[in-house]
Design a protein that fits this description.
single chain; alpha/beta; DNA polymerase, domain 1; 2 domains; two-stranded antiparallel ribbon; 12 helices; 19% strand; elongated; binds S-adenosyl-L-homocysteine; binds iron/sulfur cluster
């Protein structure tokens, strides 16, 4: 059975065979721009609603959610039709509402500090499974509007390029999210960055750098052995030149590993050269990686050092950090992995 959001517009026209074009437009925009379920499309004849709902159910079944930051952060654990599990996070800020989506169930990139990487790869998500995460979050966000989508959940978006790109186009064209509010985060898949640079729609690029020398980066981010820093930097430069979008570097500060002043100096040199913005985030502890995040005072020192070297750096608020909101950690917690003391799981079971 094809899930609801795995129908593209041409598929929908076939499903609504014999209906006038305005009807297809009405349903398409109801499902996307208005984030409605088929049964809620009250301007559409009941028989159409019923047959669409019966033949094309949603792909995501809610297995649990956690709400923190006084309701400003909502994190879901979903079950997919084949039983795989993925996560989505909705974050409200004063000026925007951002959804963080997964692009794969699991991840094959093997970054040791990442809960998703530790669990390995299950499968690619389909375009519909990616788009539906945004729709479900948009329903929750109402009456606030989802303004931004970041591809920073589980999985490596550029290792699932076709489905990810089709999802980006759908979010832009059908949901109405502007290209400058769409951000792809990558561990550094160079051919994928080059493809992204050639697309007609210019989206933002975030690169999970974590180290600015090959020796350390080979260790933290194994894919660096295939796409070393010089190649990565060249691809980033081309992306910026082709799209005019701001580049950002993600840097998870790991206590005693990549948070020394020398690390700041190396990072600053690269960030200045590429005019990249740096997002610092203290590492979230995970079951499979005993090293801790950098303590707050040293995070501030690191940020101050970057700024003194002429780099634009922000410390990312650790949204939902108290409830395992980091990449892959909700799924790991529900699978019964060992838990950090002081981080209670308050997962409300809403399986249907
Ligand atoms: N695969 C892509 C996108 C998903 S990971 C990528 O790596 O960019 C999203 C972000 O979470 C990345 O910047 C990743 O490095 C970071 N991350 C993963 N595990 C983390 C942890 N334990 N603490 C802090 N950040 C983490
Ligand atoms: Fe995959 Fe990103 Fe996690 Fe690395 S950090 S294992 S690329 S999800």
């Amino acid at each position: 059975m094809v899930s609801l959001y795995d129908l593209d517009r041409a598929d929908l026209a076939r499903v609504l065979d014999g209906e006038p074009r305005y009807r297809v437009d009405q349903v398409w925009s109801g499902l996307h721009r208005k984030a409605r379920l088929p049964e809620e499309l009250t301007d559409v004849p009941k028989a159409i609603r019923a047959s669409l709902a019966a033949a094309h159910p949603p792909a995501l079944v809610e297995m649990g959610r956690m709400v923190t930051d006084q309701g400003d952060t909502v994190k879901w654990l979903w079950r997919l039709p084949d039983g795989k599990r993925v996560e989505t996070v909705l974050m409200h800020y004063p000026d925007r509402s951002t959804v963080c989506v997964s692009t794969q169930a699991g991840c094959a990139m093997g970054c040791g500090f990442c809960a998703t990487g530790q669990a390995g790869f299950d499968r690619q998500l389909s375009t519909g499974e990616i788009v539906e995460q945004v729709i479900r979050a948009a329903r929750e966000a109402a009456p606030r509007r989802v303004s931004n989508v970041v591809f920073m959940g589980m999985g490596e978006p550029l290792a699932n390029y076709d489905a990810t790109w089709a999802a980006i186009e759908r979010l832009h064209d059908a949901v109405g999210i502007s290209a400058r509010h769409l951000t792809v985060s990558t561990v550094g898949i160079v051919p994928g960055i080059r493809r992204l640079a050639r697309e007609a729609l210019p989206v933002n690029l975030a690169v999970s750098l974590h180290a600015a020398n090959d020796r350390l980066r080979d260790e933290l981010v194994p894919i660096n052995r295939r796409y070393p820093l010089a190649d990565l930097a060249a691809a980033c430069r081309d992306h910026v030149a082709a799209t005019n979008r701001r580049l950002s570097f993600e840097w998870a500060l790991i206590d005693g590993v990549n948070d020394r002043l020398d690390d700041a100096r190396e990072l600053a040199a690269l960030a200045r050269e590429l005019r990249a913005h740096v997002n610092l985030i203290p590492l979230n502890p995970t079951p499979g990686y005993p090293t801790r995040g950098t303590p707050p005072a040293r995070v501030r020192d690191f940020a101050a050092r970057l700024r003194s070297l002429g780099v634009n750096a922000t410390v990312r608020a650790n949204r939902g950090g108290d409830i395992d909101a980091a990449c892959g950690q909700l799924r790991a917690a529900q699978a019964g992995s060992p838990r950090e003391p002081g981080q209670p799981v308050t997962l409300s079971e809403r399986a249907r």
